[in-house]
Amino acid sequence: MEESKEIQEVEAVETEEVVETPAEEKAPAKKGRGAAKGKGKRKIETVENAPQSEWKERVVQIRRVTKVVKGGKKLSFRAIVIVGNSKGQVGVGCAKASEVIIAIQKAIAEGRKNLVTVPIFKTTIPHPIVGRSGAGAVMLRPASQGTGVIAGGAVRAVLELAGIENILSKSLGSKSPLNAANATMDALKNLRTFGDVAKNRGLSLKEMLN
């Protein structure tokens, strides 16, 4: 009788251990899954709340170009990209690479290196000007409020990303997008404000305007 009681007590202890251990093992597994879901939500929230850059890029042209070498022809892609923040700063970048994406990235980096500060006077430019680059030339004239950007192609991209809202333009000579963009940049680079002209003449702003 005593042996049978001991056997029953041992079996009862073993059954209690077997029943309790799975409950203990399942609990941390649920916590781990919940924690994993929480981490995923935090990552999504951080990506959505990430600050957006004020710089904008616009691809004007992508062309496939070839270079004749000793073994034959070497193919590559040329990208022209306009970079600006619509607050008076704009740049033009041109780069070549064996892949389109790499060419665009190189052009964006070059455009940010060649930024130009544009003097904006009441949403337009201070005075008429003509810019030149190679065989291309672009004429820019100030316009009244509500006129909009009267331009096309690469000239329009440069003016919009520079932050100019009202302007008249005319492309003269070469119709190449690269020449047109560089000619527009040359015109914007040579713009002068009324204060700069008055300072060069040794006059005050009121004296010059009168």
Order of helices and strands: HEEEHEEEEHEHHH
What order do the strands of the largest sheet run in, or round the barrel if closed?
A: 1-2-3-4
Tell me the CATH architecture of the domain at 56-195: 2-Layer Sandwich
Largest sheet: 4 strands, antiparallel
- Please identify the structural class as seen in this structure: alpha+beta
Stretches where pLDDT is under 50 for at least 5 consecutive residues are 12-30, 42-47
Instruction: Tell me which oligomeric state these chains represent.
Output: single chain
CATH topology of the domain at 56-195: Ribosomal Protein S5, domain 2
The total beta strand count reads: 8
Radius of gyration: 34 Å
Mean pLDDT: 80
Question: What is the structure about, briefly put?
Answer:
By secondary structure, the chain is α+β, with helices and mostly antiparallel strands.
How would you sum up this structure, described in words?
- The structure is a single chain.
- This protein is an alpha+beta fold.
- The chain has 6 helices and 8 strands.
- The protein has helices at about 1-50, 100-115, 155-160, 175-190, 195-200, 205-210; strands spanning about 55-70, 70-85, 90-95, 115, 130-135, 135-140, 150, 165-175.
- The protein has a 4-stranded antiparallel sheet with strand order 1-2-3-4, with helices on both faces.
- Helix 3 (about 155-160) runs parallel beside helix 4 (about 175-190).
- The chain is elongated and about 70 Å long.
- About 25% of the residues are buried.
